[in-house]
């Protein structure tokens, strides 16, 4: 990977391909939390201890133990500027917590950006794997292989009764978070979403927004993940999420069919208005952009908008974020300047997309 390429290309390589049910499931993700047994957890570690952990864990890649997974570049967080770190957060390659880490924080990133391994975040090691569409079981297999590679080289903090030990008690046990990012506009429009999300919480799952815990579900994007890590096996956690996500996919498909059958003209009007505004607006804040991009994505998926690729929607989901906007235009911006540049960038990308069209 060209160094800093992550800051130049809005789409990670894994985002450029479709996956199963990718009209509804944007991505599948596995995150594994682990700690080195010989060192204090990050919140209690000294600067020297954090550096020792960083050297030990980056050494796994340097020794070639991850070569069967892919080629990894090593980024030391203290060597990246604030804008580069912001872009990494916006592309979901690091957490906001790691972006603010100044003591031994590092990132191992593969060429496709489908695997990002965070070092000295809340835990010593956070393995994250991403894939397009609904492939949560396949992504788990990949994450498990990476976990095995580290466990062969590092003695993890592990308790026979409790399982893997982590900084946050909610991760103790398996240490895994499995999640799917879902685009559910029809369930929102048919006012079924609250009932479904309420039912989700009854089966050990939690719903968050685009950027995880504490973030708002804007643009009809919902991140659904396991809440329980202790008392269930990894396979039980994955199977439960897979089963529930499959049911949500079917509910969203049914809601889309209902909208087409009962409210086609109103639906066409909504998506065409959003397309028109995105194509001609001179100023656009991030929340409005997310909602109108959601409308257009729905229009594309239902065949109401033609000659615009879903790939463009994926690009704009990243490119309209504050950090990437500043990177794309190579300038620092006020909030109003970002809104102006965001509208300009959206107009430009839609025009380039096979000449656009409704």
What does this structure look like?
This protein is an alpha+beta fold and 358 residues long. It is 45% helix and 15% strand. The strands form two sheets. Strands 2-3-4-5-1-8-10-9 form an eight-stranded antiparallel sheet, covered by helices on one side. It has a two-stranded antiparallel sheet with strand order 6-7. Strand 4 and strand 5 form a beta hairpin. Helix 2 packs across helix 10.
Supply the key terms.
358 residues; alpha+beta; eight-stranded antiparallel sheet; two-stranded antiparallel ribbon
Q: How are the elements arranged and paired?
A:
Layout: E1 25-34, H1 47-62, E2 72-76, H2 82-90, H3 96-99, E3 106-110, E4 115-119, E5 125-132, H4 136-153, E6 158-159, E7 163-164, E8 176-183, H5 185-189, H6 193-201, E9 205-208, E10 221-226, H7 234-280, H8 286-301, H9 310-319, H10 322-329, H11 335-352
Antiparallel strand pairs: 1-5, 1-8, 2-3, 3-4, 4-5, 6-7, 8-10, 9-10
Helix pairs in contact: 2-10, 7-8, 8-9, 10-11
Mean residue pLDDT = 90
Distance between the termini: 37 Å
Neighbour order of strands in the largest sheet: 2-3-4-5-1-8-10-9
| Proportion of beta-strand residues | 15-25%
SSE class: alpha+beta
- Along the chain, the helix and strand elements come as EHEHHEEEHEEEHHEEHHHHH
Number of beta-strand segments: 10
The residue ranges in which pLDDT falls below 50 over 5 or more consecutive positions are none
Major sheet details = 8 strands, antiparallel
C-alpha-based Rg, rounded: 21 Å
The best one-word shape is globular
Percent of residues in helices:
40-55%
The number of helical runs is 11
């Amino acid at each position: 990977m060209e160094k800093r390429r992550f800051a130049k290309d809005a789409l990670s390589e894994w985002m450029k391909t479709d996956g199963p049910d990718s009209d509804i499931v944007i991505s599948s993700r596995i995150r594994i939390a682990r700690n080195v047994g010989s060192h204090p957890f990050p919140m209690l570690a000294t600067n020297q201890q954090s550096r020792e952990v960083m050297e030990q864990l980056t050494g796994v890649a340097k020794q070639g133990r991850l070569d069967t997974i892919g080629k990894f570049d090593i980024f030391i967080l203290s060597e990246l500027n604030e804008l580069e770190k912001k872009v990494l957060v916006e592309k979901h390659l690091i957490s906001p917590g790691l972006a603010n880490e100044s003591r031994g924080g590092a990132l191992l990133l593969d060429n496709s950006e489908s695997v990002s391994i965070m070092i000295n975040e809340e835990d010593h090691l956070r393995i994250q794997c991403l894939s397009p569409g609904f492939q949560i079981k396949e992504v788990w297999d990949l994450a498990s292989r990476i976990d095995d590679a580290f466990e062969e080289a590092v003695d993890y903090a592990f308790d026979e009764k409790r399982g893997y030990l982590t900084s946050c008690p909610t991760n103790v046990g398996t240490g895994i978070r499995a999640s799917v990012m879902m685009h559910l506009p029809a369930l929102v429009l048919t006012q079924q979403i609250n009932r479904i999300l309420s039912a989700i919480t009854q089966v050990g799952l939690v719903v968050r927004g685009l950027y995880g815990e504490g973030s708002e579900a804007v643009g009809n994007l919902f991140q659904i993940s396991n809440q329980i890590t202790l008392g269930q096996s990894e396979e039980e956690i994955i199977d439960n999420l897979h089963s529930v996500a499959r049911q949500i996919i079917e509910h969203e498909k049914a809601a889309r069919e209902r909208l087409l059958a009962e409210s086609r003209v109103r639906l066409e009007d909504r998506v065409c208005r959003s397309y028109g505004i995105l194509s001609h607006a001179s100023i656009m804040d991030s929340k409005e952009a997310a909602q109108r991009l959601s409308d257009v994505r729905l229009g594309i998926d239902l065949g109401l908008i033609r000659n615009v690729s879903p790939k463009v929607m994926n690009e704009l989901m990243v490119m309209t974020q504050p950090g990437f906007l500043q990177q794309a235009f190579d300038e620092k911006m006020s909030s109003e300047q970002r809104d102006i540049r965001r509208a300009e960038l959206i107009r430009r990308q839609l025009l380039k997309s096979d000449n656009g069209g409704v």
